[in-house]
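[job 4471] stage=fold_predict status=RUNNING
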Amino acid sequence: WLASRIPCSGDGGDDAAGGRKVMFLGPTGVGKTTTIAKLAAVQALLEHRNVLLLTSDTYRIAAVDQLRTYAKILGVPLEVVFGADSFPSVLDGHPEADLVLLDTAGRAQRDRRSLEAFKTLYDAFAPDAVHLVLAANMKYGDMMDVVEHIPDIPVSHLIFTKLDETVSYGAIFNVQQEMGLPVSFLTAGQNVPKDIEVATGARIADFLMTPEGERLTA
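[job 4471] inference complete, writing structure tokens
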């Protein structure tokens, strides 16, 4: 019953990413870049798709280098987007890309001026899906504060990371129910391409209701 109350990409049979062009948003420290690398690895190495990585995170120290390292290991191209006007030339340069993943800079949810930059990126990139990335070890109040300060961007999916860094999962259910959006992916750990799975209602219900020692393996 609980699983049926939690809409997830893994239960619908559709592409969990939500389309060809996918944008990722989230506050600092939730693991967006690592999550994107995991997803890129699964798609490129296991699904044999042509993946293009984009990053607009030119603010965080070594952020571009981190994603560039992943891209080199995976053998996929990486482009740095310095402004919204860069998208046309970047995308035109990679017509073979089956999946385009855009990493954005993590910003504090109360930094209104910085958050508004996401709207400019969204309008220029015109993604098929926007995934909001939240860490499972965040407090429910902090998660909802992030949600309430999202700029005027139509978020389509939720991703919960760091499930291995908490023993309390109620906030996942509460945030999902509050937003009414499907959960696309769950991550636990830093291993690439492991430690990521397509979310299902049964999996989240398992986290919510089962003692840790008895929990299902992914």
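[job 4471] summary: The beta strands are 21-25, 51-55, 78-80, 99-103, 129-135, 157-161, 183-187, 196-198.
[job 4471] exit 0
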